[in-house]
Amino acid sequence: xxxxxxxxxxxxxxxxxxxxxxxxxxxxxxxxxxxxxxxxxxxxxxxxxxxxxxxxxxxxxxxxxxxxxxxxxxxxxxxxxxxxxxxxxxxxxxxxxxxxxxxxxxxxxxxxxxxxxxxxxxxxxxxxxxxxxxxxxxxxxxxxxxxxxxxxxxxxxxxxxxxxxxxxxxxxxxxxxxxxxxxxxxxxxxxxxxxxxxxxxxxxxxxxxxxxxxxxxxxxxxxxxxxxxxxxxxxxxxxxxxxxxxxxxxxxxxxxxxxxxxxxxxxxxxxxxxxxxxxxxxxxxxxxxxxxxxxxxxxxxxxxxxxxxxxxxxxxxxxxxxxxxxxxxxxxxxxxxxxxxxxxxxxxxxxxxxxxxxxxxxxxxxxxxxxxxxxxxxxxxxxxxxxxxxxxxxxxxxxxxxxxxxxxxxxxxxxxxxxxxx
Length: 422
Ligand code: GDP
Ligand code: IMO
Ligand code: MG
Known about the structure:
This protein has helices at residues 19-26, 79-91, 111-124, 136-144, 158-175, 183-196, 204-213, 245-252, 285-294, 312-322, 389-402; strands at residues 5-11, 32-35, 44-48, 51-55, 68-71, 76-77, 100-103, 107-108, 200-202, 217-221, 259-267, 270-272, 306-308, 310-311, 326-330, 340-349, 352-354, 365-372, 406-410, 418-420. It is of the alpha/beta class.
């Protein structure tokens, strides 16, 4: 059966690792780029030729006009947000309709899913997850409850199906005493539905397997990160999909033995947006400095990202869960000015020290080792032979801990600021 292959590029920490940049960078090497999970909770930034785009549902391969892009069955899609995102690309001169395919099995996010997202967050009070408010949890809940609406539903008797699910949501929202007015939103949402009809709505699992049989190569673009995975992340402070390599199979309809490389992408430090345990979080000036220099504010929501040193316990866990074959380290340049850099090598609680990810990371303290910083401007580097010794040492230190090579080092947001290690 082996002909084409699938490689996966996955965020392996708490999201926002720089997936958009690297997928865009890798795209020339593939025939197809496919999203397999998540929806508009994602914000993937791509910068090239002085232009910046933030993609939410559309795969980051879209800027290479010769490639096929697929929104896979594991994704959830909000038609109004999709319309806005696609129009922005069309206005910038990118014609999408002949090269963006949408799975008929992907689920739709209704306006009332977003109301439910807010209502459930309100209900949680101080235990809020800090969701993106995009209706992700309620849409995936309806999928699991087998009442969800799928993209394919818009082709047949849609209005009746829509009203039925909306009615169900309205009853829930009424019980939750949640007040809302979605009149305008619903209008734009319906415009989004009409707009989607112009796209190729496909059986994407059939298409992808045909491409593979023809010898084509597929890059599966992850969203979020391993620590936000519904099963393996810091539950309940997670998203509602499988963001890990298993999600590539279920979210695209491809068999595990089709997957070749699994690229695990992480930052030279840690960030997290939203609530939930985060052992390496820094509440001091160092954390603020990382946030400022790294511009660690949500690409979609603008929220402050919580910052800390690199967490090798989490990284190693993610390497194992995903079967990572190659690592990609982003944003090394953000640490340029630090005289010393710390790395969390274990967690400690009640006299117990562990390097294995605990069931619940709340209350665990990080055990740090300290390394010298490079105190040099990395953004000017063009090749690995120019790496300062302290950067090489930092890279080797991480590799020795997680036992997977770091193949790419990113030293700036632009497509060009990407260095391959040999
Ligand atoms: P994604 O969700 O994983 O695609 O990542 P985001 O786009 O949400 O966040 C990554 C941010 O870091 C974006 O603003 C990128 O432009 C930026 N970025 C990516 N790589 C680098 C890098 O190597 N250095 C710096 N300074 N910024 C980077
Ligand atoms: P990308 O693909 C960072 C976080 C939210 C919240 C939790 C649940 O850009 O890396 P949700 O709206 O999914 O129900 O929120 O997950 N979250 C992300 N954090 N990057 C993302 O996507 C995220 N998508 C969701 O902040 O804590
Ligand atoms: Mg992001």
